[in-house]
Amino acid sequence: MIVKTLSMLMLLSANLFGAELEAIDPLVRVVDLNVGEEQEITLSDGSTATVKLLALEEHRDPIRLAVRSSDLKLLVNGEEVHLRGGSYLLPLPVGEVKIDCPVTKGLNSNGTPAFWGLKKDARFRLWPAESPLIRPGTMIYPVKQDWLATRTWFDNEPVDGGNTVIKKIYYHSGLDIGASEGLVEVIAATDGLVVQRGEEILEGHADGKPTAARADVVYLLDGRGWYYRYSHLKEIDPAIQTGNVIKMGTRIGVAGKEGASGGWSHLHFEIKSEQPSGEWGTQAGYAIMREICIRDEGLEIIANARPAHFIVAGQETELDGTRSWSAAGDLNYEWQFDDGSVERSARFAKVYPQPGFFTETLKVTDAAGNVDYDFASVVVLDPNDMEHYPPSLNANFHPSQNLKIGDEITFKVRGFRMEGGEEHWDFGDGSPAQTTASPGNSEPHDPDGYAEIKHTYDKPGDYIVTVKRTSKDGYPATTRLHVAIGE
Fold this sequence. Notes:
- This protein has helices at residues 6-17, 106-109, 286-297, and strands at residues 29-33, 38-42, 48-60, 67-76, 79-85, 92-94, 97-104, 122-128, 152-153, 175-178, 185-187, 192-197, 200-201, 218-221, 227-231, 233-236, 245-246, 251-255, 266-274, 280-282, 301-302, 309-312, 316-320, 325-326, 331-336, 342-343, 347-351, 356-366, 371-381, 392-398, 409-416, 423-426, 434-436, 451-455, 461-470, 476-485.
- By secondary structure, the protein is mainly beta.
- The protein folds into four domains: 6-128; 152-294, Glucose Permease (Domain IIA) (Distorted Sandwich); 300-378, Sandwich (Immunoglobulin-like), CATH 2.60.40; 391-487, Immunoglobulin-like.
- Strands 9, 10, 12, 13, 14, 15, 17, 19 and 20 form a nine-stranded antiparallel β-sheet that branches. It has a five-stranded mixed β-sheet with strand order 22-29-28-25-26, with no helix packed on it.
- The radius of gyration is 22 Å and the shape is globular.
- The model is unreliable at 1-19 (pLDDT under 50).
């Protein structure tokens, strides 16, 4: 196993950056294991942990055969541990350490192995039990908007989208942070050396490194020796030039849908680090970004209805809110479904008789009275057309931070694979419904791909904005946003 010590990082830092960037010893340690293999790992505080992988079971869906989750049995310092692998999971405390599994071998079989550089059965990340996941003061959220303000994909979640249902899976290898095109500012998550601006790559950071020339991309390299990718930028700030060292929080540009974005506006933010195989691979970011936002935004409660669901009409799927969290402890759950029904439990199995794109609302309330909302996307295929995805909608809004009564908010929506119909907006405040008509099936980079509408609220509160559209063929699509208005 390769573990960079602080002295090695200092040497790396001196070689790459001169004296302009301080070396940072990552708090995480990484080990790749085959079933039956055991290794001892030295943690960031100097203590050691022994990990042995006893068994691995991956769970695939029957339609695309995508790995949706996994179950692993381990020995951690001699204690038998059952660990869940998959998206939107946090490290599990085990005695004096905490451990997670960001990726297993099955993602190589029908995905893109170069994303992870995994050569064994599974990858594990370890920290001391009381350690933060990332050093405080060394990383921030890379966009100026609230946590999960709009649709966001995270580590290794299979992307069920596009026009045709194909067997090769795009297991999302970074964080796709939904953001209103041309309005949301993208900032440097860390202090870093600019090693790529668009087509220009700094000497020494091309061959054998994660960078790849593309007009909408910026790469930074930080004191941990990690590369940070910012993609789909509508604009790159003129001050971002290769060879410059910039400070955390520096403006990089504005979020957009340039490059291979699929036509929806977002920032693709991805961390690449050298893995135990010696190759560059994605450093899973969900748990890290969540920790950062709890700290920096002062979050006391987080609803989590993820990951997305992918089924065929007539099948059922389990809606699961147990990844939600509150600093105050126990949570009450309420699912508000597209069909008007309500369920008050953390988990609920629901049948979807009709093909379409549905967005279900999870409301969580804690003992202190804090409330939060999140949304579960459910893609339901037509059993008579298993080769094509149903029409869908993508909506976003700006600004999302510190909204007050009377603030004008810009909402945007775009239809995908959607012919006919128009979007119907319910802003959740009792105001008259409004309509828009996005192109519905235009070229991904169409500058007018999103329809725009503005709205203000005259009372404080939490509002659920619902956008619906039905195609000429009768396929319904619904998406939702949570807008919090202060005094």
